[in-house]
Amino acid sequence: MRKRHKIISFILTILLVLTSVSGVVLGNEQASRKLDSSAIDEFMANEIERLKIPGASLAIVEGDRVEYVQGYGVANQNGTEMTSETPIVLGSVSKSFTALALMQLVDQGKIRLQDPVQLYIPWFHLDDKEASRKITIQHLLNHTSGLSTYDGQVAISQGDKTLKEHVKGLAEIELKHPAGDRYEYSNLNYNILGLVIEEVTNLSYKDYLNEFIFKPLEMKNTYADPKDVANHAIAGGYQTVFGWKLPTKQLKHEGSVPSGYIISSAEDMANYMIAQLNHGTFNGKGILSKNGMNTLHQPSSYIGDDTYYAMGWEVKDDEISHNGWTENTYSKVILDGQYGISLQINSMDYFNLNEYDSIISGVNKLVHHEEPPSPTDHPFMKYAVIDLIILGFVTLIVWSVYRIFKPKSREVHGFLRILHMMFLVMVYWLIPLSILIGFPYLFGPLSTVTLFAPGIGHLLFGLPLLLLIVGVVTLGKGIRTARKTHLNA
Description:
- The structure is a single chain.
- By secondary structure, this protein is α+β, with helices and mostly antiparallel strands.
- It has 2 domains: 37-367, Beta-lactamase, CATH 3.40.710; 381-488, no CATH class.
- It is built from 17 helices and 15 strands.
- It has an 8-stranded antiparallel β-sheet, with helices on both faces.
- β11 (314-316) and β12 form a beta hairpin.
């Protein structure tokens, strides 16, 4: 009996030791899964310095828990500290809020996705009234309405009207494709959806979001109207002008808030991501049904590179994301089922947009305990090249003007004269005319290019125009000279 007792005691001892060891191993595994906040801080500090970013804020959630929120740098030119509570304009991440609001109304039976837009806005139409009748709510949500990217870009600089006035102003817009034919991203789709929300609920877009999204998600520093931001606490935006970061002011965008101008903070975006990751539930409160959230995230329109557009979100493999930028702010959200990451920056650098995207990609690597890639390119080298090219064209224009008024010292004859004429035709006519005519196809709408890339955007149009004027003056002088020579002969 004692022998059996000793054997049992020995077995129990072994089990206790194994359990203890197992507990230590399990504890180490849990520790290994914790975020390395010091590595994230170091990475963010390095990227902010490398890209000369004034300020940024970051939020990371896992499941239904906030794991990390932090602000970096400054919020404005006065040196105010950027914190996790500082609101920043989100850009196109705003589309996910508009889509969420629409799906809430679908859950309530007030809207059906397959219904035509005209069922909710009877007076709505574009240039082709018959084609307008075929555009559905689903088409707008999935960017398959046929409205063009170009017209959506133009709308950014024309958003100073009310939402209703903005949508009424689309009466002359032409569809690029038949409704439902193919995907083409257009801000106009979500501006129209914003008005659908107003017409169905009899509430303004901002009042609806305040009551049914911001309040239940406890988003205390999130707004659909910059005038509502208390104490002017909204982060000031910066733009890169010829390689230098300069503070700039945003235009008024009342009519395009649903597509790109909601304002939020890192802390609030953490709550928003928790609701997205937990089937529409936050702190025990449901803002959307599980089925509604699944529909919201369902891949629909093929974009390319194995990526699909859902409703206010892009889906690739198991990752749901959307980035956004305004004239002077940037943001991006990534959801992978377990983690959610939201990055906001109070500056915009159109020529280094991929570098901004790489920041959140690097943070995503660190969250999953992987090493982010080390950047190899100097982000401002391209500005040095662009500035040199611009300087070259400015020098050419100044030299050309000087040559117009300087008396000719000698005549050029023969083959050199032919080469000279070919040079004049190419530099003063072909190149500038090609740029001016092809400007919308090469760079986008002039109003948007100058808004998002100030300085360089203006010169992309101004320098070809000046060259063309110099060419006209040079041609006129050449004709007058030829007439004088003919009369004197």
